[in-house]
Amino acid sequence: MLAVCMTLIDNDKDQTSFEDFYYRNRQIAYAFAYKILNNSALAEEACANAFFSIAKCFKKIHNYSLHDMDAYLIRTIRNACYAIYNKENQNPTSSIFDLKVEDEPSEDFYDDIDLDLLIDAVRKLDDKLKSVIAYKVYYDLTADEIAQIMGISKRTVFNYLNKAKRQILDLIGGDRFE
Fold first, then answer.
1. Which of 8, 58, 104, 129 has the fewest CB atoms within 10 Å of its CB?
2. Is the pLDDT of residue 175 over 60?
């Protein structure tokens, strides 16, 4: 686990610093993760994910004070535990083919849509909203990929998508489609 994390760090000084950080905190991290997950294997997985995540951004955080680094580790471990917990407790979803479609759109629904009106509405959006929509719809990227490309947070991507949807609906008279 440590070897994988060390490959993510370029500088020898940072590698030594990360190694010290890892050995100083691995037992604390495991105990904290086990307290949340109550499972040894899942706690080890959470620790591995957390230290891997910290190694990826260690260049940014290696100058934090000791107290801040410990707090950052605890937040990262907690988030990794919750992600694993949610993944483990996620109900299996049914196949899309097993679902019954109650409301199929009528044939004339598509005739009612004025594509020119929709195109004009998209053109009137801010550039950042148009970019997010293009990445999402045209390039079929995930919110994480869009956030990385645009240099914004995943939450901001979702906010932009919702804002764009509201503005488009306002511009085309969205109350007809609700």
1. 104
2. no
Band of the pLDDT at 156, cuts 50, 70, 90?
Answer: very high
Distance CA 48, CA 122 (A): 43
List Cα–Cα distances, 42 to 32, 38, 123, 135, 178, in angstroms.
12, 8, 48, 35, 44
Q: Does domain 110-176 have CATH number 3.90.180.10?
A: no
- Number of C-beta neighbours around residue 2 at 10 A: 13
CATH class held by domain 2-88? mainly alpha
CATH 1.10.1740 domain position(s) in the chain: 2-88
Distance between CA atoms of 19 and 14, rounded to whole angstroms? 8
CB 72 within 8 A of CB 25: no
Q: Quick one: angle between helices 12-37 and 40-56, nearest 10?
A: 150
Q: How confident is the model at residue 162 (pLDDT cuts 50, 70, 90)?
A: very high
Please tell me the distance from the alpha carbon of residue 78 to that of residue 144, in angstroms, as a whole number.
20
Average pLDDT for the chain: 81
